[in-house]
Design a protein that fits this description.
Bound molecules: 6-O-phosphono-alpha-D-glucopyranose
Radius of gyration: 18 Å
CATH architecture: Distorted Sandwich
Number of helices: 2
Helix content: under 10%
Keywords: Isomerase
Number of domains: 1
InterPro entries: Aldose_1/G6P_1-epimerase, G6P_1-epimerase, Gal_mutarotase_sf_dom, GH-type_carb-bd
Function: Catalyzes the interconversion between the alpha and beta anomers from at least three hexose 6-phosphate sugars (Glc6P, Gal6P, and Man6P).
Distance between the termini: 45 Å
CATH topology: Beta-galactosidase, Chain A, domain 5
EC number: 5.1.3.15
Protein name: Glucose-6-phosphate 1-epimerase
Oligomer: single chain
Amino acid sequence: MAVQLTDTEVTLSLSDDPNTSCKILLYGATVYSWKSQNIEQLWLSKAAKLDGSKPVRGGIPLVFPVFGKNNSDDFKDLPQHGFARNSTWEFLGQTQQDPPTVQFGLGPENVDEKLYSGWGSNKDNDFTLILTIALHHTYLKTSIDVINNNDYSWDFNWLFHNYLQVNDIEDTLVSNLAGENCFDQLLNEHYEEKAPAVTFIEELDRIYNQIPEERMVQVIELGKVVHSIQRENLPDIVVWNPWVDKSSSIADFQPKDGFKKMVCIEPGYVKKFVTLNPGETWSASQIIKRNEPLTLQSV
Ligand SMILES: O=P(O)(O)OC[C@H]1O[C@H](O)[C@H](O)[C@@H](O)[C@@H]1O
């Protein structure tokens, strides 16, 4: 069976290749495992909670309606990264057989009242989120539709918080960001990226912004491309590795040297807010690919 459902999660697998599969928790609609030909592609903390008691540390948590903490009136009462990752989504069903494709939905009725009331000055922003996940032989596609059901407009951020698995972060490069604008969240500074590729030797937390859509960001290990990310309507890319001190301060980050095995590459719309008008739908997607050729688009 290509799609299996339990009370808490959905599993997709390819009928002609059962070793290619992904698992999605209803909690947060979080993809917490994606295996391609039996090789796990996503990093998941050994201490990640999969019981709905807190957002999943690993996989692909979803960030909505705010990225990080924001002190403006409409967002200051929300938790870090909003409430999509800590709400239980509805499974809407399978929409396609081949490739296996499923959808999940979230609306105000699914969100804890206290969390929801932290958003917006009207306190009744009526939204629908539809998440679509499609599993292919060599890639995983996640797409989001955000619908405004109100008769007034409101603002939001969206981000796919991908925790990608690597063998050794010190052998890992992230390419195709040279020459782009970056906001360094640790230095609290904007600058132009001068390095031909992003390397990791300490904690790193940057928002690369307004990256042209044709730019394919690639994660390269010892000269081999391990992940490539294609984006639609997601102009910003957060690159994060917590390294030693930050990992040790995160209770559900295990093992403590797990930062060596992961890099977060997070396509989103976070440097500015999307303003969504009444009745309108905003759509975006990402495709995470394996085994792509090296594409040099900036050096
Ligand atoms: O600990 P969390 O709330 O899941 O956030 C984890 C990380 O998310 C993003 O990558 C941010 O850029 C980081 O500043 C943050 O530390």
